[in-house]
């Protein structure tokens, strides 16, 4: 049993963490999920990968949670795949390699498709698969000391999964330089090319991410989910198809309970009472 305390010193939710490599706590409507293998810079072992995916799913299913923050324990966000595990996979069969890769792809997809906003609080280096996790999040805030790199080519690996996400976010030229260069970039350079939204100065990046999560949590949960779903579809659509998809989402939002409550709350000068 673990008990967390909030920034104000008050109690947070007590819980039993289902897996040891990931810890969670709630800060109001924000679920903070922490990668917790600081002794190996939160390297992405299979156990951690599965734990993270389970916690993202649990946060998505919990009606009291309106936003999710991912961060790392210690000085790093995530150093990428656990290289000791990766070395041991060399002898796997092609089918086993495929299954292992699919599991990692499903983790990134779970983050991307989570119906709730997911924010990365990048407290330190985010490398290879760690950078991929950041790229899968809706919003990324970085501490000044954070570093980012898609370094797979340095060890003869291919950053295949993260390239799907990275290309959409930073454009082809920046993606090519990052993936082919396999180098590290600092937080400010990452912000300049759109890899992260902003660098947080003057305070802990986790506090800033939780504050952002609280702000996003004030918005209608169905509206946020529909917006995320539409944004996921648009990159593969032409103009006419994109507009057609947007019309359908717009029409659906005009007839739902959320807009009725939102307009009523605005006119009555009160906060909306959103349902989970």
How would you explain this protein's 3D organization?
The protein has 276 residues and is an alpha/beta fold. The protein has two domains: 196 residues, 2-enoyl-CoA Hydratase, Chain A, domain 1, CATH 3.90.226.10; 47 residues. It has a six-stranded mixed sheet with strand order 1-2-3-4-6-9, with helices on both faces. A three-stranded mixed sheet has the order 5-7-8. Strand 1 and strand 2 form a beta hairpin. The N terminus is likely disordered.
Shape: globular
Structural class: alpha/beta
Give the radius of gyration: 19 Å
N/C terminus separation: 27 Å
CATH topology of the largest domain: 2-enoyl-CoA Hydratase, Chain A, domain 1
Largest sheet: 6 strands, mixed
In order across it, which strands form the biggest sheet? 1-2-3-4-6-9
CATH structural class of the largest domain:
Alpha Beta
Could you give me the name of the CATH homologous superfamily of the largest domain?
2-enoyl-CoA Hydratase, Chain A, domain 1
Helix content: 40-55%
Mean pLDDT: 89
CATH architecture of the largest domain: Alpha-Beta Complex
> How many structural domains in the coordinates?
2
Residue windows where pLDDT falls under 50 for at least 5 positions: 1-19
Characterize the quaternary organization of these chains: single chain
Count of strand segments: 9
Number of helical runs? 11
What sequence of helices (H) and strands (E) makes up the elements? EEHEHHEEHEEHHEHEHHHH
- The fraction of residues assigned to DSSP E strands is 5-15%
